[in-house]
Automatic annotation (TrEMBL):
InterPro entries: Metallo-B-lactamas (IPR001279), RibonucZ/Hydroxyglut_hydro (IPR036866). One of its GO terms (molecular function) is 3'-tRNA processing endoribonuclease activity. It comes from the Bacteria. SUPFAM superfamilies: Metallo-hydrolase/oxidoreductase. Pfam families: Lactamase_B_2. This is MBL fold metallo-hydrolase. Residues 21-230 form the Metallo-beta-lactamase domain.
Length: 269
């Protein structure tokens, strides 16, 4: 199997269920491992794979609970061990740093020096500039560019360059220039499909896509492989069918599933 790959750890929107955790994805390039999003249930997935201490970085696209709340148990898991691993970078949208600091204060155990500030102790919190131009070096051959997504809170569409292979994430977003730029000509694109149907006002207010829009966006961006993700759980098959039907020229369209592994390479029809 290629050493550049994506593993879906969780793909649910809103809450985990018996099948899958909420949003969380493992990006691997050689020995480099980056966790993208850390929703409820993701720490369990990491621990089951023995990866909780083997991450090189974490990226949170935004701070809604289904994408971020397991970052607190991840911090405790890394700190409350015989030999805590070194701090690793934690990137979040640049205007969410204060919000994360408030979460850190809420989660703190002030009488315990190890977890008095669990997030700041376990992670090197770094602002992720969402200008579509600033490349963040993560490791040799791995860099990240963030784009401004359209959501109810600050949200980042992500574009990873993995030694020339492009892996993109929509985050939660409505249709906008940022997500189109992040996904442009990507080899693999993970895109949310929150709603099967929704009226324009709901989409504008919450900043989400319908399944059909997910397929249309992937087609417009010219991606090689689309992973349809961020599903609510009660219409998964219909949502996937709608996204696939709208995906046009996209060579491969896959439904997100827990444990799905996708090589990051150009798919051909």
């Amino acid at each position: 199997m290629t050493d550049t790959r994506l593993t879906v750890l969780g793909y649910r929107a809103g809450r985990p269920d018996a099948v899958s955790a909420c949003s969380g994805y493992l990006v691997e390039h050689g020995e480099v491992r980056v966790l993208v999003d850390c929703g409820p249930g993701i720490v369990t997935q990491l621990v089951s794979r023995g990866l909780e201490h083997r991450l090189d970085a974490v990226v949170l696209t935004h701070l809604h609970q289904d994408h971020a709340f397991d970052v607190v148990p991840l911090a405790f898991t890394r700190l409350l061990t015989k030999e805590p691993p070194p701090r690793i970078p934690l990137w979040i949208p640049e205007d969410s740093v204060d919000t994360l600091a408030a979460l850190d204060e809420w989660a703190a155990v002030p009488t315990d020096p190890v977890v008095g500030r669990p997030l700041a102790t376990a992670f090197d919190v770094r602002p992720l500039v969402r200008d579509g131009a600033t490349a963040v070096p993560i490791a040799d051959g791995v860099s990240l560019t963030a784009h401004r997504a359209r959501h109810a809170v600050p949200s980042a569409s992500l574009r990873f360059d993995l030694a020339g292979r492009i892996l993109a994430f929509s985050s939660d977003t409505g249709w906008c220039d940022g997500v189109l730029a992040a996904a442009s000509d990507a080899d693999v694109f993970v895109c949310e499909a929150t709603y099967l149907t929704a009226d324009p006002a709901m989409l504008a207010e919450h900043g989400h896509l319908t399944a059909r829009m997910t397929g249309e966006l992937a087609d417009a961006a010219g991606v090689g492989l689309l992973v349809v993700s961020h599903l609510l759980g009660y219409d998964d098959e219909e949502s996937f069918a709608a996204a696939r039907a709208a995906a046009g020229r996209v060579p491969v369209v896959l439904p997100a599933r827990a444990g799905l592994v996708v090589p990051v390479e150009r798919a051909v029809r």
